Every structure is written in structure tokens, then in C-alpha cells.
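Q: C-alpha cells for this one, please.
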Amino acid sequence: MYSIVIVGIVTLVGAPTQVRVTNVSMEDLMHVFAMNRLGAAYLDLEPGRAPFLRSLPHDDLACVAKSYYFLGPSRGLSQIACSSVVFIAAVNAAVIGLLAAAAASSSGAPTELRVIVGAVLGIA
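A: Here is the predicted structure, written as C-alpha cells:
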């Protein structure tokens, strides 16, 4: 019974954490768009300053991606798969699966049903 309460609390902490990390990632990208627009404004005022800008003076996706990864190219799938958002989502899925399995266990369900319930709700 205590495990259900503890895992339930961890789930209640994990869900808003995932939402907040996703929001921060989107805000970070918004700031890259804004920096590119500022760069364009600076170049309108002083075109000779282009070599001193780290970001590109356009706000299309190609220029934003180049500005976002200004130390080198994006690492593609590993950039997404190893991100904080994906990691927290995987941990949340595991915790939700454990919570479902613990709830099934406390109701006296057989082991096979506990595993199936935990796996299905964790994946969902």
C-alpha cells in the first residue's frame, strides 16, 4: 500500500516536470528565433558587422537550426533521443507502469495480469 502512495507522489511530480522541461525547450528555441531577428536588425543598421554575429540574420528554420547548433551540425536522432524531454518521458512511463502494476497487485491480480497492466499503461 505504501508503495502505491510513494509511486503516486513520484508520478505527480514527474508529469509537471515533463511539461515544464518541454516548455523551457520551446522557450529556448523562441529565444534563438529572437536572436536571429536582432541580428537582422543590427545588420540593417551596420551591414559591415556581419562577421561578428554568431547567429544568422534570418528567422527561417534552416538559419535557426544553424544558429542553435553554432558549434557544429545537429547530431540528428541522438539530439532528440538523448534530450531531457525524452528521458523524463521514459522515466514517467516506467513509474506509471509501476503504479499500475502495484495497484493491480494490491487488488490480488495474478502476476501475468500485473505485468500486462503495468506494461500497457506504461507504454500508453
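A few notes: The chain has one domain: 2-123. The radius of gyration is 22 Å.
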